[in-house]
Backbone:
């Protein structure tokens, strides 16, 4: 059996391009993605070092047989799935040109995916933040709250603020860049 | 034709045009991709995500329809509405071409 390893790495919903690069680097170093445990655990097995492009597609569990068939026809191998994201890979050696390494060939379809992430991921996070994290964080600062309760909700508050600011700005910037490029 | 369709599809992207043009005969997404690559000598690639998304949108808007399956791949064909849009586009592109040949 091939040697395996487990790595923990945090990527947010706005870091999919960084995640693609990281997975490509792993492959160049001879590690091939075999499994994922949501949300942050990646399992790899030893392989010959190879330049393989990884692509993440956000489908929010709406992927159907037609889409998967089309990806297969275009030479993409399914490498995993995690929380609504599908992972595909294709060796650079099998590509005729750089376009063969892309899932999307125009900005209209790229921006569709960014909007989909904002609508079905960023929006729920915002609602949870407003309706659950803020009220609990306020109660946690009142006198009489247990230490555990206080620490837990303050930590949650910090995580959510970071997530919202980081992902909100980054996705918005992606959306603007893709829409602004015209045609 | 509704104004909405006209606003979305006239003028259309090169990707949209070639997809609609190829679907004058029943075809599946990957087949369209190969055909477009050959027709444009590799200059235009339609990637799978874009192909899938465009087909889904055009089907929803009634420009193309599902006509059957071939080895698990969905076959589409242009509808009368789609043909109307395509003809408008061809007229527009012909005018564009004619004008581009004129002296300035």
Residues:
């Amino acid at each position: 059996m091939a040697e395996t390893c487990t790595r923990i790495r945090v990527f947010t919903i706005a870091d999919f391009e960084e995640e693609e690069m990281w997975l490509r680097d792993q492959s160049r170093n001879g590690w091939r993605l075999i499994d994922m445990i949501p949300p942050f655990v990646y399992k790899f097995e030893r392989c010959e070092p190879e330049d393989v492009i990884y692509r993440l597609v956000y489908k929010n569990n709406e992927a159907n047989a037609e889409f998967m068939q089309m990806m297969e026809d275009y030479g993409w191998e399914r490498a995993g799935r995690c929380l609504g994201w599908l992972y595909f890979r294709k060796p650079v050696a099998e590509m005729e040109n750089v376009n063969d390494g892309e899932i999307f060939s125009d900005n209209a379809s790229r921006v569709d995916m960014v909007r989909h992430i904002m609508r079905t991921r960023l929006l729920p996070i915002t609602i949870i933040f407003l309706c659950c994290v803020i009220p609990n964080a306020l109660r946690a600062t009142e006198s009489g709250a247990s230490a555990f309760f206080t620490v837990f909700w303050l930590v949650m508050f910090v995580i959510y603020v970071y997530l919202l600011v980081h992902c909100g700005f980054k996705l918005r910037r992606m959306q603007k860049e893709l829409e602004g490029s015209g045609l | 034709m509704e104004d909405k369709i006209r606003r979305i599809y006239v003028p259309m992207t090169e990707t949209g045009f070639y997809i609609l043009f190829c679907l004058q005969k029943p075809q599946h997404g990957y087949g369209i991709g190969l055909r477009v690559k050959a027709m444009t000598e590799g200059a235009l690639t339609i990637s799978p995500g874009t192909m899938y998304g465009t087909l889904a949108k055009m089907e929803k808007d009634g420009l193309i329809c599902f006509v059957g399956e071939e080895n698990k791949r969905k076959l589409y064909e242009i509808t009368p509405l789609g043909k109307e849009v395509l003809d408008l586009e061809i007229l527009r592109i012909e005018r564009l071409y004619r004008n581009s040949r004129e002296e300035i």
